[in-house]
Design a protein that fits this description.
Mean pLDDT: 82
Number of helices: 3
Shape: globular
Strand content: 35-45%
Order of helices and strands: EEEHEEEEEEHHEEE
Length: 235
């Protein structure tokens, strides 16, 4: 898709709970259960400034310069990768607001923001080309719809790409891979994906994927989104 990608240090998906902005008091289930807000979303860390609620839609403003404050990332922890995770047991509706007037609405169970710092640039040993620039790297992974129906998987991929003004090429890629790809000895991922880079140099991709080792009747299809921001200066 020609989109610039970066290698992260790995997402530590520790999904525990806190409150959504504007909610009054946590809802808890059982003595030792994690607190969740009235929409069933759990989060551990500071309250994000980039999130609002529009009825039953969780809205995230992903425009502009990323920061731990905007996305509720706990930057006091000593871990190499700092995480702000938002989890719900059931799928919920989320809208990602992007630069250039674009946005996408989809169902999701988890949104995981993270950042990690690269003190120096990582380069290709052979060519010297920069692979990972020095700086602070922010990214977002949206774990979205899951279905066992291949036709529904195709519809969902079409739904997200058309909202973003992308072609149906990835839909065709997904449909073809569903009908042609089966390898019981290789558990690689297949499907369809597409992406673009916004005017503020943020890379956005959407995909629907499955494991090729599974027979069609046993497959689960995952429609997800990923956002990678341009590296920021180290503090």
């Amino acid at each position: 898709m020609g989109a610039r990608t970066r290698v992260g240090a790995g997402v530590v998906a520790v999904v525990i709970a806190a409150l959504l902005t504007g909610c009054i008091g946590p809802i808890t289930y059982g003595e030792n259960a994690v607190p969740r807000d009235r929409y069933g979303v759990g989060h551990h860390g500071p309250q994000p400034t980039a999130r609002t609620q529009d009825g039953d839609v969780e809205v995230w403003d992903l425009t502009g310069v990323p920061s731990a404050e905007k996305y509720g990332i706990d930057d006091d922890a000593a871990e190499h990768t700092h995480v702000g995770a938002y989890s719900s047991g059931d799928e919920r509706t989320v809208r990602l607001v992007l630069a250039d007037g674009r946005d996408v609405t989809m169902r999701a169970r988890e949104l995981i923001f993270d950042y990690w710092d690269a003190e120096t640039a990582a380069t290709d040993a052979r060519t010297g080309a920069v692979i990972v620039p020095a700086g602070r790297h922010f990214q977002l992974q949206v774990s979205g719809w899951v279905t066992e129906d291949p036709d529904e998987a195709v519809r969902r991929q079409r739904h997200v790409v058309r909202q973003l003004g992308l072609s149906d090429d990835s839909v065709t890629e997904l449909r073809d891979s569903i009908t042609r790809t089966y390898d019981p000895l290789d558990s690689k991922s297949a499907g369809g994906s597409d992406g673009f880079t916004t005017s503020d140099d943020t890379v956005v991709s959407v995909s629907t994927s499955f494991r090729t080792a599974m027979e069609t009747k046993y497959r689960s299809y995952h429609t997800d989104a990923h956002v990678y921001w341009r590296e920021q200066p180290l503090p």
